[in-house]
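## Example pair
The file below holds two records. Each record gives the amino-acid sequence first, followed by its structure token line.
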Amino acid sequence: MRSLILKNLQGKKILLLFVVTMSVYLVMIFITIPWLVTYSKGLSTLDMLPTGYDHKYALSLFQALGEEGRDYYLSRQLPLDFFYPGLFAVTYALLFAYLLRKLDKQDSKWFVIAYLPILSGVADYLENIGIINMLLTFPDISATVIELTNYCSIVKSFSTSIYFVALLVLLGIFGYSKLTRRATQNPRVPGTEPKLRV
């Protein structure tokens, strides 16, 4: 896995993946998920509950969605959400590894963070499979399916949160490194500062 990531650290490729990933994400955030919240009369969808949910909430959500809302979940939101986890996993794993390479730290322990988007993506796919099962079996939803799907949702949220905290730290280090490198390459020689005209 590590060697596969390191072989694909081209800036243009990562930028293209980022644009596609964000495009799918924005469609879900601004179009499909708001539509689902409208159908559910304000209840959040299961994949938007980072701290998890229980059997009662899942039943309440699918009941509130109604037949039309549940069909929209299956036919609109979930197809998009089957593209997104894979895109997220690949894009953000490559982005973190790319920044590490720019800092010449690709062999450091920090590289393990690049695997978190992959873990998040796998958990997201399992979460989606669980949600599909719930939608297809409603109202006779298995408590075990809800419990396992809830676990996947929490793993997804937890791994994603850790990743983005680490990414922000790495971006800060990368920015500081760029600034100090620029200052080192262009040192100011005393007496060469431009004089102000009065």
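Second record, same layout:
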Amino acid sequence: MADKRDLLILGGGLVGMTLALAAAKKGISSHVVDRADPAELTAEGFDGRASAISTASWNLFTNIGLGEALAPLGCAITNIAVTDGMKPGRIDFEPAPEDGSLGLMYRNRDLRLALFEAAREESLIAWHAPVEVSSRERGPHGVSATLGDGTVLEASLMVAAEGRRSPTREEAGFNLAHWNYHHRAIIAGLFHEKPHEGVAWEIFYPAGPFALLPLPDDEQGRHRSAMVWSVNEKDAPGLLALPEKAFLGEVMGKMHGIYGAIEADGPRSSYPLGFQHTARIIGERLALVGDAAHGIHPIAGQGLNLGLRDVGALVEVLVEGMRLGLEPGEAQMLARYEKWRALDSFSVAFACDSLTRLFGIPGKLPSLARRIGMAAVQRTPPLKRFFMDEARGMSGDLPELLKA
């Protein structure tokens, strides 16, 4: 007899696996299918990326039982410093005492380890990886996926969580607004002489933003940060090919010595930067979550948080519908999910795209205008509070799972 479950989640990354765990906590079963090998994804050195976890996203992780495992691994963001090339007029976003912090920084590897360990212990999650999906079927009575070995997995609702190049989204024929920024993000871990004191730096240059994100000290007490440096596509190969000493010299020039001497913490990597957004995020017995629905610029560190808000909203809609006796794939449930997420996802995507373009305008006059604007925000507490609430993910109509 086929093992039919409530959800068929295609993609077992950070968003897909969080969805499976959040659903399981509400009694909703799932198949999770991923082509990647979990052992490779969690290998030391596989992925040097780090993610900013907003206050709302941290609430989600806590509410699904990951708080204890993740708490010692993160670094609190106590300040976000935003500056135009380190010139006068910077903004410092500092949380009110009652807020605690502006969020937490985590290595993606640590997030994966915690999620994967929890998934292995959850009986409501059937995890299939590494496997290939040879075909997908959606119909009025259910959905299915046939794996490369011929295994057929059945469910009521299919969820595409495969990231920007989602084959499920492409096969379903969703219209996609997209463009290329012709930039690459260079990712590197750094050890540095001076402590970061929980400050996340966003330094804007005409050629692209340069971010320093605080991480916990390592076992030897060395201070660490993650670097995300956006560079022109044509300059990326040369920078990636530089010897380590020369590369660190280039990085030092962007850092203006704020943390003293630096060393490399692991290898460099890079990925292309682009924008994509779907007008619809649902189809017949299908929902999109995370980057499959909206891939944004990493300028404000909101990509993963946006996907986790998708998770919270979808689970809440499913729980309420199933309580009324509806199946997870019912059209009215999916319509509510789409309506709930439409404005938030578009607003964040539009804001990130606008910031990228605004700070990419070269010249002294645009720089002066930007710095005057930032100085005005710095002197206007209500406006600063608005931006901080957005960064913490605590604005708008939040799903219950994202509340404390």
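Notes on the second record: Residues 60 and 402 are 5 Å apart (CA to CA). The domain at 4-178+274-402 is CATH 3.50.50.60 (FAD/NAD(P)-binding domain).
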